[in-house]
Design goal:
The protein has about 375 residues and is α/β, with parallel strands linked by helices. The protein is globular and about 70 Å long. It folds into 2 domains: about 5-20 and about 55-255, Type I PLP-dependent aspartate aminotransferase-like (Major domain) (Aspartate Aminotransferase, domain 2, 3-Layer(aba) Sandwich), CATH 3.40.640.10; about 260-355, Aspartate Aminotransferase, domain 1 (Alpha-Beta Complex). Helix 4 (about 80-90) packs across helix 5 (about 110-115) and helix 10 (about 255-280) packs parallel to helix 12 (about 340-355). The chain contains 12 helices and 11 strands. It has a 7-stranded mixed β-sheet with strand order 1-7-6-5-4-2-3, with helices on both faces. Strands 8-9-11-10 form a 4-stranded antiparallel β-sheet, with helices on one face. Strand 2 (about 100), helix 5 and strand 3 form a beta-alpha-beta unit. The termini are far apart.
Length: about 375
């Protein structure tokens, strides 16, 4: 069977919107899109009087080379969130089909499914936050069209071994798409599973420039998948998803200098992650630091709420993940610059020294004196 047999038949049959930019085949005087003939004031808006290419060739080429896929196996969108939404809308019939997720995990999988009125089947991660492949497969019914896995997982940080992803892909062939979210892969020791796309036409991989490539504000993400899946999603994608300034920022970030800078920062994050994990494990009131291969650490505290409030009072914002299953005592701390990380450690050290917050949460007043 074709992987497209899993998609909604009405999506396969629909006539996609044909934008003016897609229909334009050359020409110097563009009078087909009702654009302004005049560029806006200022250098930043140069060229913005014209609609951008739906899939800019230079950016597609650069990303396909970076991720090791063919151009027709890559879709660029507004962060990986857009790809998640497109997948759900293309493959899940409202009120009939479903997705499978493994909480605690990235929340947008469930959000997109619920907006589409698709079912959300939850298969919790094991107590050590590892994936239970047998449990996932047991939960896959005929209604399930998409199975999402996140590696390294957000918000816990653990990767999924490659052989387990292969096992899932083998078992899901002809039954559902397997979507592997690799948003944090650059910070891990693992290799991308995108090399398996040619072997499994129902495997798709999410990548993003928001994390390791420092372009969260540009909102550039990718889906790597079978060419037929990419072509299907382009049918329902908005006609002009990528603003020109964002494309320019991405191309600059993917230049030789941009890559050198990104790889240097990744090395710093990995070293700081190890340093922070060791330092955070020692203060009284810290229950555990979860192992992580991402650019963050999930940390369990005796009183996570009090620690959160104290850090916030000192101008430091971390992620409160206590609402997630099995993380009712945890905060997620992104790895910052060495100086930012030193500040976090100094505050936690001061809290431990005064003995009032980490242990029982009885107070979280301002820290006096210098931090070491």
């Amino acid at each position: 069977m074709s992987v497209l047999d899993l998609a909604r038949p009405e999506i396969r049959a629909m006539q996609p919107y044909s934008s003016a930019r897609m229909e334009a085949s050359g020409g110097k005087i563009l009078l087909n899109a009702n654009e302004s003939a005049w560029a806006p004031s200022g250098e930043a808006g140069k060229g913005c009087n014209r609609y951008p290419d739906p899939q800019p060739a230079a950016l597609v080429n650069a990303l396909a080379e970076l991720y090791g896929v063919h151009n027709d196996q890559l879709l660029v969108g507004r962060g990986s969130d857009e790809a998640i939404d497109l997948l759900v809308r293309a493959f899940c019939r409202a009120g009939e089909d479903a997705i499978v997720i493994q909480p605690p995990t990235f929340g947008m999988y469930a959000v997109c499914a619920r907006i589409q009125n698709a079912g959300v089947i939850e298969v919790p991660l094991a107590a050590d936050f590892m994936l239970d492949v047998d449990a996932v497969l047991a939960a896959v019914t005929s209604a399930v069209k998409l199975v999402f896995v996140c590696t390294p997982n957000n918000p816990t940080g653990q990767p999924i071994p490659r052989d387990e992803i292969v096992r899932l892909a083998e078992a899901l062939r002809g039954r559902a798409l397997l979507i592997v979210d690799e948003a944090y892969l650059e910070f891990s020791d693992a290799e991308s599973v995108s090399s398996l796309i040619d072997s499994y036409d129902h495997l798709a991989v999410l990548r993003t420039l928001s994390k390791a490539w420092a372009l969260a504000g540009a909102r550039i993400g990718c889906l790597l998948a079978n060419a037929e899946v990419i072509a299907l999603l382009r049918r329902i994608m908005p006609p002009y998803p990528l603003p020109l300034p964002c494309v320019a920022a991405a191309l600059e970030g993917l230049s030789a200098q941009g890559r050198a800078d990104a790889y240097a920062h990744i090395r710093v994050v990995r070293a700081e992650r190890a340093r922070m994990a060791a330092a955070l494990a020692t203060p009284p009131g810290v229950r555990a630091v979860l192992p992580s291969q991402a650019n963050f650490l999930a940390v369990r505290f005796d009183d996570a709420g009090a620690v959160y409030q104290r850090l916030l009072a000192e101008g430091i914002v971390v992620r409160d993940v206590r609402r997630y299953p099995n993380l009712g005592d945890a905060l997620r701390i992104t790895i910052g610059t060495p100086e930012e990380n030193d500040r976090v450690l100094a505050i936690l050290k001061s809290l431990a020294m005064d003995g009032r917050v980490l242990a029982d949460g009885s107070a979280y007043g301002s820290v006096s004196g210098k931090h070491s």
